[in-house]
Design brief:
mainly alpha
């Protein structure tokens, strides 16, 4: 694709951009900023719609007392138990137990700190998380 053909359709990335390789007038590859193209924007919008739905479902389950705040932060960070397990250096089974509110409420501070660090939040944000909108 030539440099002047790089799509510039605004989408979910807003004022941000992605970088594409394109041919300049001399036929050499160079990096060119792109706002995106319609097909990519539609796919991104659909993906974000699913993510927002997942977040809403997790928040509801936390309100109902079915899940701990760990589930929310896993969801917004697009992590599963396996990824989180690697980040906090704990077995997946142990993390699944920590997803239970009753178990979460009894976790010692060092364990909670591991989770907070993995989610890039403060310990206080994790401990005081509330699903109130």
């Amino acid at each position: 694709m030539r440099e002047d053909e790089v799509p510039q359709d605004k989408g979910v990335i807003g004022d941000n951009y992605r970088v594409n390789y394109a041919l300049d007038k001399e036929g050499k590859y160079k990096l060119v900023k792109s706002s995106g193209c319609d097909s990519v924007n539609v796919a991104n919008e659909q993906a974000w719609s699913v993510i927002h739905q997942q977040v809403a479902e997790v928040k509801n389950r936390i309100k109902l007392g079915e899940l701990s705040p760990i589930a929310y932060f896993m969801t917004i960070n697009q992590m599963d138990v396996k990824i989180l397990s690697q980040l906090v250096n704990m077995m997946g089974l142990r993390i699944r137990r920590h997803l239970k509110p009753r178990i979460f409420s009894k976790l010692p501070q060092p364990i909670l700190q591991k989770y907070a660090s993995a989610f890039n939040i403060s310990l206080e944000e994790l401990k005081s998380f509330s699903c109130q909108d």
